[in-house]
Design a protein that fits this description.
This protein is mainly beta. The chain is 14% helix and 48% strand. It has helices at residues 2-14, 73-79; strands at 30-39, 46-55, 58-65, 85-86, 95-99, 102-113, 116-126, 134-144. Strand 7 (116-126) and strand 8 (134-144) form a beta hairpin. The longest helix is centred in the N-terminal third of the chain and has 13 residues, at 2-14.
Length: 145
């Protein structure tokens, strides 16, 4: 589990997210949806209720577990660093960061939703081992006006 804490820490470093509000104001206030997190190919996915509000300082995500104890836990707490919503496209290719657990590679793909780009899927891999990939996807994103 320790490598995944390094992995989540690397997420904060590799996101290269511009969270500042752009010059064009829109009537959309937030993006809502379900965040699905899958660790490896075998583990059952964890799901969170996702809400990302647009503020004057940028985008502010909030996660709430859909089932369980009501606590986010370390995984959910680390996920708030992921850029779920952006003003523009994300990095064009994978980003690699050296960590004590090995090289972490992150690939972010976004889709257009109204005026913003919403995370479609993020795949985080340590040393290219797909059996231990961390996959994050935003399911059924919706604009809230």
């Amino acid at each position: 589990m320790k490598p995944y804490f390094f992995l989540l820490g690397a997420v904060a470093l590799v996101t290269a997210c511009d969270r500042r509000a752009g010059p064009g104001q829109t009537s959309a206030r937030a993006v809502t949806g379900v965040l699905e997190v899958r660790l490896g190919a075998i583990a059952a996915p964890q799901r969170f209720d996702l809400r990302v509000d647009r503020t004057t300082a940028g985008f502010l995500p909030a996660l709430r577990p859909l089932s369980g104890s009501g606590s986010l836990g370390p995984l959910g707490a680390g996920l708030v660093a992921v850029p779920f919503v952006r003003e523009s496209d994300g990095p064009p290719g994978p980003i690699a960061v050296e960590t004590p657990a090995g090289t972490v590679t992150a690939q972010f793909t976004y889709r257009t939703l109204g005026p913003w780009k919403v995370l479609d899927q993020a795949v985080l891999s340590v040393d290219g081992h797909p059996e231990s990939d961390l996959r994050v996807a935003v399911l059924d994103p919706r604009l809230e006006r």
